[in-house]
Write a structure and sequence with these properties.
This protein is α+β, with helices and mostly antiparallel strands. It has eight helices and four strands; from the N terminus they run αααααββαββαα. Helix 2 crosses helix 3 and helix 5 runs antiparallel to helix 7.
């Protein structure tokens, strides 16, 4: 799909694709109004098929430029989620330990492997290595967070939301005839278009 004909709609789509909130994108596109009307109008605009498709196109193009794919992202998360500290650190008996003067001794302790010994996947899981006065400090990226993101992507964890009506009561429903439902939809649609065109 080419650039949207309405320049404000194009700016809105680009802002959404960059990660702006709907309200921010709506304001950055030059629209004005109180927060409530801006939120409502922005929601209608993002629901427009042409705008939604344009947002997806812009995001896909950006991902392609950055060579970001779902597969690559999952592989990076897997490196963190399945990292094994034993591939970066040695501990126990027979470890060469350096004292404050740099003298080596064999004993019980902890020693980090030389960087040349650490495989690429384990290195990708390491967030920080620092020399402190007490020795070397190593910190891995958030293993649990990575596993949670992988699990959500795979549909292993389902967020459940409960909805209720006024004051926690049941949600009230109204049976409408098909004609009345169509009339209400047409009315809401026309009102939304008037508000978008008027801004």
């Amino acid at each position: 799909m080419p650039v949207l004909e309405n320049p404000r709609h194009e700016i809105f789509a680009r802002e959404i694709a960059k990660g702006a909130s709907q309200r921010e994108a709506y304001a950055n596109a030059g629209y004005e109004g109180d927060e409530r009307s801006m939120d409502a109008n922005a929601a209608r605009l993002i629901a427009d098929d042409r705008v939604a498709i344009r947002v997806q196109e812009i995001q896909a193009a950006a991902a392609k430029r950055a060579e970001i794919t779902i597969e690559r992202t999952l592989l990076e998360l897997a490196k963190i989620g399945y990292a094994d500290i034993r591939k970066a650190v040695r501990w126990g008996e027979g470890i060469a330990i350096k004292d404050a003067e740099g003298n080596e001794a064999i004993g019980n302790g902890v020693a980090m492997l030389d960087s040349a010994e650490i495989d690429n996947d384990t290195a990708a899981a390491i967030a920080e290595v620092a020399q402190t006065r007490d020795g070397i400090k190593i910190k891995f990226h958030d293993k649990l967070g990575a596993l949670e993101k992988i699990g959500k992507h795979l549909g292993m964890f389902v967020d459940r939301h409960e909805h209720s009506g006024k004051d926690g009561g049941p949600i009230e429903t109204v049976d409408l005839s098909p004609l009345e439902a169509a009339r209400r939809i047409a009315f809401a649609w026309a009102k939304g278009e008037r508000e978008l065109d008027g801004k």
